[in-house]
Design goal:
The chain is mainly α. The protein contains five helices and two strands, in the order αββαααα. It has a two-stranded antiparallel ribbon. The longest helix is centred in the middle third of the chain and has 24 residues. The protein is globular.
Length: 142
């Protein structure tokens, strides 16, 4: 990954994790309804098939952004980070036991979404100078 930006490195790493979690989720959600409010446990987090697809989509967005270059990776980090931050906040506002919870989100998910979203936004903001000053190329000494 020589010559990649901080945004690309972050997007590659977290994107791969989200794709892996999305795939692993299907191993535990076989008997669940697609958007069931009650999920199956995966590493202490509740997931359902729709939640797995969302993980795959977010992971793919990060990976595609990383592959496309520094500016695209920064954009992916900003967009996915904002979505996760909003989902995290919304998770605290909805009744997790209601039918509105189509992603089978639990309290652990809420915290993970907030942390993932803030980390993604933080990397995008912290490394913004790198991509805007150097047009996607790492600065000397990086």
């Amino acid at each position: 990954m020589n010559g990649t930006t901080v945004n690309q490195k972050f997007a590659y790493g977290i994107g791969a994790v989200y794709v892996l979690i999305g795939l692993l989720g299907f191993a535990v959600t076989g008997g669940l309804d697609f958007a069931s409010p009650e999920g199956a446990s995966l590493l202490g987090f509740d997931v359902n098939p729709l939640h797995n697809i969302v993980h795959l989509a977010l992971g793919a967005a990060w990976l595609i952004g990383a592959r496309a270059g520094g500016m695209a990776a920064r954009s992916a980090n900003l967009a996915v980070g904002a979505v996760l931050l909003l989902v995290g906040v919304a998770g605290f506002l909805i009744d997790l036991e209601s039918s509105v919870n189509i992603l089978a989100i639990d309290m652990a998910d809420n915290w993970l979404h907030l942390v993932s979203g803030l980390a993604s936004l933080g990397v995008a903001m912290y490394a913004a100078r790198e991509t805007t000053t150097n047009r996607g190329r790492p600065a000397a000494g990086m």
